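Milestone 3.1: sequence recovery, worked example.
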């Protein structure tokens, strides 16, 4: 008997029921970085394991592990070798499992993080294009203190927030849209805020962002940009960090990224992923 998990009409993972057991097929990978191995901590347990997940129907195991890594931490990998096939027997939530797991060696395609100074280059390029598009209808101000430039930030964190502020915030205003990108630091953290004078973020989106922060991953796995950012930050750093949203009076939204202060090349040293 095949048990199919269906989300939004799309067939996902399959578990085969055989007598008293459930048969799973999984894929995982060993990613080495600075002589350390990336592992994942399940939000609801205290153990660590290799990053990976169950194989979908019609999907080969190499494709599975590439998909899982990109879904979970937003990174692309290259498979560099095959390590082993592991057979596991275990019990979980009252069910017995018989599992086969294909384990690969992999590496990230490019650097995990960028200096804030480098990330701002992408920001300024994006804003230049939007300025050409909207002309005087939108005014953008970027004020990040230079002392923050040497700290690292997961790449492509700021641009999606700008895109959200423009598309869903100020683009439909009759008056001039204002967007400001600012930054500050505390002893242990960096805060980068994208603020606009648009129509404001719906309460449903704000609640879903908080749900991700509290529960880990949206049940529906919606891949809206701002949700992906919140999920990435949670997985990388834990609940102490992430996105917060504030309403701006008389109208508008301020979205703030909070990340730990890191200089030099960063590994995953907190949250649910650890090197």
């Amino acid at each position: 008997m095949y048990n199919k998990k269906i989300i939004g009409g799309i067939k996902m993972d399959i578990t085969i029921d055989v007598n008293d057991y459930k048969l799973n097929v999984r894929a995982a990978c060993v990613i080495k970085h600075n002589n350390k191995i990336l592992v994942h901590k399940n939000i609801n347990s205290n153990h660590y394991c290799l990053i990976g997940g169950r194989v979908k129907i019609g999907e080969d195991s190499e494709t599975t592990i590439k998909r899982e890594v990109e879904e979970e931490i937003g990174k692309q990998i290259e498979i560099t070798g095959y390590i082993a096939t592991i057979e596991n027997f275990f019990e979980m939530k009252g069910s017995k499992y018989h599992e086969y797991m294909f384990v690969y060696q992999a590496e990230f395609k490019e650097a995990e993080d960028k200096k804030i100074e480098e990330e701002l280059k992408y920001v300024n390029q994006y804003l230049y294009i939007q300025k050409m598009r909207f002309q005087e209808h939108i005014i953008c101000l970027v004020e990040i203190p230079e002392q923050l430039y040497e700290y690292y930030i997961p790449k492509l964190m700021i641009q999606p927030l700008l895109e959200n502020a423009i598309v869903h915030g100020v683009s439909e205003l009759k008056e001039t849209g204002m967007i400001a990108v600012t930054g500050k630091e505390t002893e242990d953290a960096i805060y980068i805020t994208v603020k606009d004078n648009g129509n404001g973020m719906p309460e449903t989106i704000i609640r879903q962002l908080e749900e991700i922060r509290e529960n880990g991953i949206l049940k529906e796995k919606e891949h809206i940009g701002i949700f992906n950012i919140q999920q990435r930050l949670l997985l990388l750093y834990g609940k102490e960090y992430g996105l917060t949203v504030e309403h701006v009076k008389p109208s508008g939204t301020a979205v703030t990224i909070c990340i730990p202060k890191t200089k030099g090349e960063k590994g995953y040293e907190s949250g649910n992923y650890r090197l």
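The two ends are 39 Å apart (CA to CA). The chain has a mean pLDDT of 82.
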